[in-house]
Amino acid sequence: MKLTKEDLKKSFKEENYICGDEITIPVYLALELEKPILITGEPGVGKTEIAKVLSNAFDTELIRLQCYEGLDENKALYEWNYQKQLLNIQLNKNNPEEEQLTDDIFSEDYLLERPLLKAIQTDKRPVLLIDEIDKTDQEFEAFLFELLSDFQVSIPELGTIKAKQRPIVILTSNADRELSDGLKRRCIFLYVELPSMEKEIEIIQTKVPSIGKELSRDIAAAVSYLRANLEFKKQPSISETLDWARALVSLDADRLSPELIQRTQALLFKTKHDLDVFKELGAKELTQKMRA
Amino acid sequence: MSSQQNLEEEIQEMTSQAKVNHIEHNLVKFIQILRKLGIRISLAESIETLQSLQLIDIINKEEFKVTLRSLLVKNHHEKEIFDQAFDSFFIPQEIKEKKQTQHQEKIEEQEAAKQEASEELKFEKDSVREDVETEEVELELTEKQKEIYSKLDPETKEKIKNYIENSFPGHLRHSSHTKPALERLIGGSLSYWQRRLKEDDDNQAKPPIQHEVTGDLEMDRVIEDVISNLENNSDNLAAKDFKSIPKEDLPQVTMLIKDLSYKLATKISRRFRQNKKTGKIDLRKTIRNNIKYGGNLFELKYKEKKIQKPKFLLICDASDSMARYATFILQFIYGISSVVKDIESFIFSEDLERITDYFTGTESFEVTMNQIITNSQQWGSATDLNTSLKTFKENYMELVTPETNLIIMSDTKTIKLYDAASTLKEIKDKTKDLIWLNTLPKSEWEDLKSVQVFKEMSTMTECYTVKHLQEFAKMKFF
Fold first, then answer.
1. Residue numbers in A near B278 (CB within 8 A)
2. A214 and A64 in contact (C-beta within 8 Å)?
3. Among A143, A160, A191, which residue terminates a domain?
4. 3-state secondary structure (DSSP) of residue B478
5. Same domain, A177 and A273
6. pTM of the prediction?
7. Chain A partners of B266 at a C-beta cutoff of 8 Å?
8. Is A236 helix (H, G, I), strand (E, B) or coil?
9. A228 with A281, same domain?
10. How far apart are CA B260 and CA B334, in angstroms?
11. B76 → closest Cβ in A21, A82, A191
12. Chain-centre distance of CA A142, in angstroms?
C-alpha cells in the first residue's frame, strides 16, 4: 500500500496527531525512499507516537524493540531455546542417529523469535519501532545498522533469512549519547520540536476533548512562558502538558488560578531542581505573566 | 507549423533542463557551504537528496527546506547551522545580489585598508642609485599581519611607524639584514596586538566554527552570515568561548557541563557492564551452578571482564587569564569522579598547588571552588610552568603510575619554555598518556613556539568551549 503526501497528512490528522510539514515530509520521504527514520527531540514530544500513527495508517502490526543498557542480539534478534534443546537431547540419549538429532534441535522449532527477526519475517509490511536507541551500546548499534542496510540476517545453523517485506523502521533517540555516523547516514533525520502556543492549544483540545477553550489557552500560555523564560533541567513537554490538562479537567477547572497551579504543579515538574526553579517564580506570578 | 511546434518543444525542454541544472548547481553549492560549516555530507547523500527532490513540490519553500534538512542533517546542533545557512542562501535573487554587493564592498574596504597598511609600513633606506639619496622599501608582511595593522587605532599605528623610522639609524640602513630584522620585529609586535584585540573584544574572542575562505563570493557571504548569527545567538552557549560567556549565562553553562559529565559517567559505567553479555562461558562457575540439575548444563554462566576505570591526574593553569577555564575543566572532571578510579588535581601559576583534598569534602562544587579561590596562593597569578612542574616532580611523583592519564590545561604560554618542556618530558615518561587541553584556537597554534614544543610530546586538543569538552569526552581513554 502506498500513501501520497496528502494521504499521510490526512492519516496523521485522523489519528489526532497535530503536526505540520516539518514532520509529515520526512516521514513521507522515509516511506518513499524505504529508509529508516531517526526521530530525536525532548522526551515527551511525541516521537514514539509517530510509529503508532503509521501502524494505524497502514493497518499493520507495530513491533517494538525497547532498547536498554546491555541489550544484545539474543534479546533483539533471535535465541536458541537452549532448555528445549537440552530436553530433546536428554529424551534422545539412546538414539544413535546423531545427525538427525542435530538437524532437529537447530530447526526453526527451537528458535525463539525476537522483535527484529519477527519484523523481517512478517508477511505484511510491519512498523518496527526501535525505541530509545541511544540507550544501547555501540556494538549493538553497529550490528543494527548492518541489519538495517541489508534487511537480512545470518543464522549460522540455518543460513540467511531475507526480509519478506522491508519493514517501516522508526528509531527514536533522546540524545543521551551521540549515535554513530554509520547509523545516522542510513536514516532520514527528524527533530521534533516543542510546538508553538497555537499548535499546543490545538493538541490539548484534540487530546482532551472535554476541556474548555479558555482553560486550554491558559495552559498553553503558561507552559509556553515557562519554557521560554525559566531554566529547567527537564522542560515540560507535550506529554506533561496533556497530563496537566487532564488533571485540571478532573478538578472541574475552567480557568487557571494560582491555587490550582500549586495543587497540580507536580504534574509539570519532574525534579526537585525544576520545582525549586518554579517556586522562585511562584504560581501567582505565572498567572499574571501568562495573561500579560 | 510542425517546425514551429518542434522549436517550441525544444525551447521548453531547454528551459526545463536549465531549471534542473540551476537547482542542481544551487544544491551542490549549498552542500559545499554546509561542509565548510562542519556538517559531514557524503557524495551518496548528495545524490540521494537530489533524487528526493522529484518526490516533493520544490516550489514550496518550506517543503523544500524540510526535505533537505531531513536528508543532510544528522543531529540537533547541525540543524541549527543548516537552518541559518538555508535562510541565508535560498533568498530572492535581488536580495542575494544586494547582499553580495555589500559583501564585495566590505572585502574591497578590507583590501584598501591592507593596501594602506602596506603603504604606511615602509622604511627609508639609503639608495644605491646615484640620482636619488634615499628610497622607500616595503616590508613583506603577511595578509593577516596587514589586516591587524589596519584595525589598530591611529596612536598605535603612529608608534609602530616611528619605531620603523628610528630603529635603524645611520650606517645600519645600508645593511641587507635590516629588512628581515624589521619584518620579524614588526611581525612579533603585530602578533601581540592580534592577541590584545581578541582579548579586548569578547564577542569576537574565538569563532564558534573554524572555517576557511573559499574564494567564492556567494559561499563566503553565507558562511560569514551563519557564523556571525551563531555568535550572536545566546542559545549557542555550547560553542561560546568560556571566557566570553556573560555572568548571567554561567548557570546555564554549568548545567551543560553537568549534563555532559552525567552522560559520560553513564557511558563509562555502561561499557563495563556490557562485557558481561559478550564474555566467554565460565566453565567452572557453570558446572558448579548446574550440579543441582544433575550435572546437565542448564544455566550458563559467563565470564566478566575486569573493570578498568581510567585514572586521571589533572594540572590546571589557574593564572590570571586561565582562571575561568580552570573552573569549567575542574567541574567537568569532578562530574565524572564517581566512575573513574582516581582523580588527583593541581593548579599552577607561579608555582604548583595540590587541590585534591578540597574535593573530598561533602560541599557542593561551587562552595569548593570558592574555598580554592579564597585560599589559594596560585589562583590568578602569573605563569611559570617550569617551577610548577619541578615542584610536582620533587613532591608528588609517587602519585604517578603507568596507568595515569596526565591532563594539562593551559594556553602553553610560560616563561622558561624549554626547561619546562624537558621537565614535562621526564614526568610524561612515567605516565600512560599526556593530554594537553589547549585554550587557544587551533588557528593560533602555528604562530606560537610554545604550542609546537608541547604538541610534540602530547595529544593536544582545543578546549575553550563546551563543544570542545564534548569532543574531549569522546577520546579513547573514556
1. 72, 139
2. no
3. A191
4. coil
5. no
6. 0.70
7. 176-177
8. coil
9. yes
10. 12
11. A191
12. 20
The sign of the torsion formed by the CA atoms of A150, A153, A156, A160 equals: negative
- State the Cα–Cα distance between residues B456 and B444, nearest whole angstrom: 16
Q: Minimal Cα distance from B270: which residue of A?
A: A69
Residue A93 falls inside a structural domain: yes
Which amino acid is located at B224 in the chain? Answer: E
More confident residue, B51 or B213: B51
How is domain B250-279+307-473 classified at the CATH fold level?
A: Rossmann fold (3.40.50)
User: How many CB contacts within 8 angstroms connect chain A with chain B?
Assistant: 84
Between B76, B271, B277, which is nearest A40 by CB? B76
Is A118 part of any domain? no
Three cell numbers written together for A136: 544501547
Cα–Cα distance measured from residue B464 to residue B253, given in angstroms and rounded to the nearest whole number: 12
> Based on the structure, what is the number of domains in chain A?
3
Q: Which residues of B touch A137 (CB under 8 A)?
A: 270-271, 274
- Contact present, A248 and A256 (Cβ < 8 Å): yes
Q: What are B113-132's pLDDT values in tens digits? A: 878 877 777 766 666 666 66
Average confidence (pLDDT) over B9-38: 79
Decide: B187 and B141 in contact? Cβ < 8 Å. yes
Range of the domain at A101: 78-113
Degrees, nearest 5: CA angle A188-A193-A196: 140
Tens of pLDDT along A82-135?
888 888 888 887 776 777 777 778 888 888 989 999 999 898 999 999 999 988
What's the sign of the alpha-carbon dihedral B405, B407, B412, B418? negative
CB proximity B73 to A under 8 Å: yes
Interface contact B61, partner A, CB < 8 A: no
- Residue B260's nearest CA partner among B2, B17, B471, B30 is B471
Q: Both A42 and A56 in a single domain?
A: yes
Mean pLDDT across the stretch A52-65? Answer: 94
Q: How far is B194 from chain A (nearest CA, A)?
A: 36
Q: Does A228 share its domain with A89?
A: no
- Is the Cβ of A72 closer than 8 Å to some Cβ of chain B? yes
In 3-state terms, what secondary structure has residue B136? strand
Chain A: residue nearest B42 by CA?
A185
Of A257, A264, A267, which is closest to residue A215 (Cα–Cα)? A257
pLDDT reading at B408 higher than 50: yes
Our CA-based measurement puts residue A137 at a distance from the nearest CA of chain B, in whole angstroms, of 7
Smallest CA-to-CA distance from B420 within B384, B458, B457 is with B384
Judge whether B45 is closer than 8 Å to chain A, CB to CB: yes
Q: What are phi and psi of B241, to 5 degrees?
A: -60, 130
| Paired strand residues for B315 | B346, B408
Residues in chain A within 8 Å Cβ distance of B273: 69-70
* Distance from C-alpha of A110 to C-alpha of A84, rounded to nearest angstrom: 7
Cβ-Cβ contacts under 8 Å, A25 against chain B: 56, 63, 66-67, 70
- The per-residue pLDDT for A50 is 95
Q: Is residue A139 part of a domain?
A: yes
Per-residue pLDDT of B171-217, as tens digits, reads 555 566 667 777 777 777 777 777 666 655 544 445 555 566 677 87
A68 to chain B, any CB pair closer than 8 A? The answer is no
Mean pLDDT of B107-113: 83
Return mean pLDDT, chain B: 79
Q: Are the C-beta atoms of residues B431 and B313 closer than 8 Å to each other?
A: yes
Nearest Cα neighbor of A73 from B270, B275, B278, B273 is: B278
- From-to residues of CATH 3.40.50 in chain B: 250-279+307-473
Give B-chain residues touching A173 at CB under 8 angstroms: none
Residue A162 parent element (H or E): strand A159-162
Residue B348, classed as helix, strand or coil, is strand
Q: Give contacts of B62 with chain A, Cβ < 8 Å.
A: 21-22
Choose the most confident range, by mean pLDDT, from A66-70, A244-248, B2-6, B259-263: A244-248
Amino acid, res. A273: H
